[in-house]
User: Which sequence fits this backbone?
């Protein structure tokens, strides 16, 4: 028996093997949580809003706020004065939670412990925060809390904070309970979406609100050319979907007459997450959006409304784990599809391009933070060592008549040395922690002056970051990032490292 290896071993220095390769733009990379072999993906589905259609966030926030304020005044009897509330657009990020009882807005870590917390635009003192929320993890399913988790719903946090700040900042009591204020804001925003007043403004001027990505049509074409079926599954209604998709795809590539030709199946008003959970039927629509009747098959070139994942799989004959669904809503698109189907998931996170650019700009500072953290841990060990040593030396010295003169002098000298060392280490530790705190909060403020980094809270992942890690197989900033990868790409996740596996 030969004990020669079954493979040709590689040279010890693996760096020799790959020559200089062109670095990919880091803001356009696809990141992998769980291995995904695109060669085995036969069908790729897309959400529309914030997925195929990236919105200009600032314009959308402004429109949404303007319509919500108008509805608060017209329908809920709010005073004109709410127009005067100062609204800070930096106070908007995904993954915040609202406490309807106190009016506070907070960010959680992945263990659902409350981190940064604001009342109006004022930071809540750590003692108050601990009194209110310390100990048990926050239950987001409780009616007390509301999770701000879609880019459509960001303005509600801004409005809540801005209105609280406007009243309480001038020493007055808010004329509504916090709960009522928040519920009124949310209802008004929902209504602006539901009654189509927002959509009417957007469809009348699509380029103001939606970003037409020239790389999107070739991305879809590349998937189709590789033999994959492509479908659209959106919660938007037909008239809005048609207007947005025309703007994104029509006239872009000569061999696609209409945006509809890019897709094998088109499903509008999909009612996700209900699509993944319930058994709503597929209804066929005509091109004017009128219902023709319940569908028993799904065909290319036709338009469907509603539906559910089981019927979709049955009618199209797809193997569930050969479907990749690309969406932007962590709950409706990703968590629900993961929990109720075998579909693989790609999450589009529009904020990633800014996050990655800032991470790159501040990488020196971030490395310094890592080094300081390592240093703080080592200094803690040293301090504990000297404390223990001093204690045991103290016991020797205290034995009455137990030590000779020379012995006690040796022990005394050892105590002195240890005390000096202890002082030095304590001083170093204090300076390390001061610099660490200062540097971390300086870097955090660069990302967002109120909330810091989207994916982190304190030393942990933020709740949003944790959910991205748990439920999205891959994640990236925009759909067209798939264009620079092969349609049979094997996306490999970095090896997961536990704390005990680090540092050897
Ligand atoms: Mg969406």
Assistant:
């Amino acid at each position: 028996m030969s004990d020669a290896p079954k493979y040709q071993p590689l040279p010890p220095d693996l760096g020799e093997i790959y020559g200089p390769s062109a670095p990919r733009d880091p803001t356009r990379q696809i990141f992998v949580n769980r291995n995904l072999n695109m060669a085995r993906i036969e069908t790729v589905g897309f959400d529309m809003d914030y997925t195929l259609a990236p919105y200009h966030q600032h314009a959308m926030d402004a429109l949404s706020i303007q319509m919500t304020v108008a509805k608060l005044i017209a329908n809920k009897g709010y005073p004109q004065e709410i127009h005067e509330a100062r609204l800070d657009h930096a106070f908007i990020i995904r993954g915040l939670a609202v406490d309807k009882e106190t009016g506070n807005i907070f960010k959680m870590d992945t263990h659902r412990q409350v981190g940064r917390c604001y009342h109006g635009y004022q930071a809540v003192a750590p003692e108050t925060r601990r009194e209110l929320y310390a100990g048990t993890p926050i239950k987001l399913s409780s009616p007390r809390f509301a999770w701000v988790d879609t880019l459509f719903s960001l303005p509600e946090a801004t409005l809540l904070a801005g209105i609280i700040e406007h009243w309480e900042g001038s020493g007055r009591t808010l004329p509504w309970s916090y709960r009522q204020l928040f519920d009124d804001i949310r209802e008004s925003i929902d209504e602006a979406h539901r009654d189509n007043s927002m959509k009417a403004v957007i469809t009348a001027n699509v380029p103001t609100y939606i970003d037409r990505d020239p790389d999107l049509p070739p991305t879809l074409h590349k998937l189709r050319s590789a033999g994959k079926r492509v479908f659209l599954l959106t919660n938007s209604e037909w008239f809005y979907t048609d207007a947005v998709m025309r703007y994104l795809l029509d006239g872009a590539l000569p061999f696609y007459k209409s945006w509809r030709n890019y897709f094998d199946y088109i499903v509008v008003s999909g009612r996700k997450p209900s699509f993944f959970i319930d058994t709503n039927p597929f209804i066929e629509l005509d091109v004017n959006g009128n219902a023709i009747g319940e569908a028993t098959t799904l065909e290319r070139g036709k338009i469907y409304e509603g539906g559910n994942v089981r019927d979709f799989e049955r009618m199209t004959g797809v193997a569930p784990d050969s479907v990749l669904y690309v969406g932007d809503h962590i709950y409706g698109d990703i968590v629900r599809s993961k929990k109720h189907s075998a579909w693989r998931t790609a999450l589009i996170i529009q904020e990633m391009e800014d996050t990655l650019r800032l991470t790159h700009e501040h990488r020196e500072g971030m490395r310094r933070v890592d080094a300081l953290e390592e240093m703080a841990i080592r200094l803690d060990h040293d301090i504990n060592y000297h404390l223990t040593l001093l204690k045991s030396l103290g016991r020797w010295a205290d034995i009455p008549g137990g030590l000779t003169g020379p012995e006690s002098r040796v022990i005394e000298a050892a105590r002195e040395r240890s005390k000096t060392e202890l002082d030095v280490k304590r001083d170093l530790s204090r300076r390390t922690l001061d610099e660490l705190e200062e540097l971390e909060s300086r870097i955090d403020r660069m990302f967002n002056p109120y909330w810091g980094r989207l994916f982190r809270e304190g030393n942990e992942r933020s709740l949003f970051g944790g959910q991205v890690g748990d439920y999205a197989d891959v994640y990236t900033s925009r759909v067209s990032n798939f264009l620079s990868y092969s349609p049979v790409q094997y996306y490999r996740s970095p090896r997961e490292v536990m704390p005990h596996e680090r540092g050897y």
Notes: The longest strand covers residues 114-119. Residues 362-453 form one domain. Residues 76 and 113 are 34 Å apart (CA to CA). The chain has a mean pLDDT of 91.
